[in-house]
Structures are given as structure tokens and as C-alpha cells.
Description:
5-stranded parallel beta sheet; Ribose 5-phosphate Isomerase B, Chain: A; alpha/beta; 16% strand; 47% helix; 149 residues
Amino acid sequence: MRIVIASDHAGYFLKEKIKDFLKSEGHEILDVGTNATVSVDYPEYGFKAIEKLLYGEADRGILICGTGIGMSIIANRFPKIRAALCHEPFSATMARKHNDANVLVLGGKLIGDGLAVEIVKAFLNTEFEGGRHAKRITLIDELSSKEIK
């Protein structure tokens, strides 16, 4: 699977750990930064990752910032992106099964390396159930494209 990964400075170390895991599992990784712990603006790196997904250069994305909240906000601003902030594997499983999430968001200051890997495993190894959930994804797309007056 082609996975785009991005972080800000607060998520840099966790990003590197997750990259090591993904490589060991044979995934293709597109790392769009950041590449250091020097303070950066998370929206820029979140956007770089979302671009890769929207242009079909990646199958799924993983975004990491201090809490995961900022990266969730930037990712979910774009059509066809369903980003899920997860703190444990069950949420990641359900985000895939019921919401067809295509972006996993993690808080680098909130979870440790081992738990993060378990969350990533759940996210990558769970398929979308479709059925009644597919109808809801379509509804999200329809409603989010409406003009608010």
C-alpha cells in the first residue's frame, strides 16, 4: 500500500517510528515532512499529504501533530478526505469499518510508540464494510458540497 505520512515538529519522532514499522511491513512510504523538531506550521504539512491522496499518489494517509487536533482540522477541510483522530486501536478499526476513513491522525504528545503501531495496524488491516455505511459516506459527500446560505 502507498501511504503518505506527515507531521509537524511535535509529531516528528513518532512519524519516524511509524515509518520504520511501515517499511518493515513492505509499504511504500511518501514522507512529505517535516524532517526535524524545529517548529513548523502543521497546516502546510497536512496539506502536502492531502494533496498526495487527492491526486492518487497515495492510498491512505497518516498525519501526526502534538494532539492530532490541528491535523484533523486541516485534513477534513477537503472533499473526499475522511480523517479520523484515534487514540486506541478500536477507534481506528471502527473508523475504517464504518466511516471508510482514508487518513489516520495521531497525537504525538499523547500516545507512545507501541500503542501508535497498534493503532496503525488496525487502521491498515481493516476493510470498509460498505452497506448502510456506504450510504452515509455518500450523504456526507452530498451534504458537504451544499452551499450554506
